Amino acid sequence: MEEIKKIAKQLLSENKVQMVIGFEKGTANKVRPAFFTKPDDVEKLIYNEACIHNLALYLKKDICHHVSNVAIVANPNVVRSIIQLASENQVKEEKVTIIGISFEGKSIGILDFKAAEEFAKTQPKGLKPEDRAFIEKVQAMPMEERFNYWVETFSTCVKCYACRASCPMCYCGKCNVETNNPQWIPVASHKYGNLEWHIMRAMHLAGRCINCGECTRACPVDIPLNMLSYMLTDFVMDEFHAEAGLSATYAPALSSYTNIDKENFIK
Amino acid sequence: MEIVNKLLDKSALSALIERLSKSGKEVYAPVKENGITDFAKIDTIDTIDFDCITTIQSAKSLVFPRVENILSYKKTSEDIVVKNVDITAFPEVVALGTRPCDAAGFIPLDAIFCTDNADEIFNARLKKLTIISISCKKADEYCFCTSVNGNPGNTAGSDILLTEISDSTYFAEIVSEKGKAIFDANTDLFKETAAIDKTPHLAEVKQEFTAEAINEKLNTLFESDIWDKQSMRCVGCGACAYVCPACGCFDIQDENKGNKGIRHRCWDSCGFGLFTLHTSGHNPREKQSQRWRQRIFHKFSYQPVQQKQFGCVGCGRCSRACPADMNIAEHLKEIAVN
Ligand code: SF4
Ligand code: SF4
Ligand code: SF4
Ligand code: SF4
Asked: What is the ipTM of this complex?
């Protein structure tokens, strides 16, 4: 942590960046995202095992719009999110300084995008065994039971969109749920309105979700909605041999075409 | 009416719940399911989670559901037939185990729905709601009812308030006519008592500021940079408004199918950018900090003027639910000393 503070302080005092995104102490034993703009503020920066929020989401929020250079304390999830955002032309290397940190809290130092890609490749990725077990359990259900399972699971969703607001990949200025001419997804959070919203969300994250779990962490009613996009992670891997957040120049599976893409869905 | 003091044993509460649900009333209470506690329909005391400090969501959905049909319409060759929702068909509901802050939350909520015109649907539901609250023995670091004119044994908004005075007994305060109706129908379950000092049985919640002081401060803070500073980590969602007992904003949405459809009322939140987006593309609240400012101003500056009520009861739900740990008590305290 001291190493990270040193880097953050130096970046700010040399005016290489105008803001460092990291963590500070939160309510009781919580931590919270924090934005440091002066070298002295950095004293408040902390990093511990509670620092699991995916800070990359702030790169696309209005607080970063008027900052020319920003540094971000980046664990492997944040690194992968930045790489994914870069592959979608959403962040520019010259604007973002990555202060790498392992999941255990070991400082890796400043990473350029090339080094970030290398770092991401060495880190644990993909689904955790418990996620895979969950998915296998659901996938083993007969179709109707599975459908009802998801309808039921999403029935408590209040459509607060905390999941969307917390996902770094959900940066669209106008989300499909807000398109109303024509209206694709019902605004109401009734059963099918909820199901449609979640199916749409998962489809739009196919091959883009980096499995950070931030969406589910943000959900006030603890809906395991990340499992839908996680399922698609394996699917996109199997079908397109593509994995999100590992290459800043990768063309996202759903918006590109290569001649190895299968066309067996055309019948 | 003047508060009537009684005793209610826990076994009698259990019998009361069974009688209420047998008599056709829907009884809602905090129930723990899949690891979280929220209000759910019950018919026995056994399913109630008495331990939780507050449910994740407030009890407001009993009178202001997150989505409700308000009318249906049908176009025929001659006419358009509009059918309002049948407000006489709403069930009699008892909210049991609400906290004093939950109960107090119905007061500003009611005030919102009765400004200018009394909202028929909301009022029909409210009229059929009886609130039996339980005083708080425990509070957590998010609670701040005492800073906004409440307290862990506050009777305001409740029809009956129960305070646990021993492992087997509640001190019952019959606060309103609705409460009295339940008492009158079940007198055999209650015992006589003199007034009891509840204080030793209540949680301690330190008063950190006053709602009046916030109101006063806001007069000069509209242009302050405090909103930018406080809201930097706010991600702009609806979690805080949706769990809040006193937030009443809604959206009206038609769901059309061919030549018929349903009109819904759905929760909405000032935390969303879309909330104030004009058709022209102009957005008077274009930054998250302006939306955060609106949340605080509405509750502590506009509502006291428009409805003579503060729009916050200090339950701390918004802070607990916030994905970015925006702690409203901490922010209000900062405003109070600004
Ligand atoms: S896990 Fe959730 S928050 Fe993280 S990238 Fe996937 S969809 Fe977004
Ligand atoms: S955060 Fe949870 S409740 Fe809110 S929209 Fe997402 S899934 Fe629904
Ligand atoms: S304060 Fe928290 S819950 Fe409310 S809009 Fe901001 S991030 Fe969402
Ligand atoms: S603003 Fe927050 S603390 Fe105040 S009543 Fe609403 S949820 Fe409770």
From this structure: 0.94
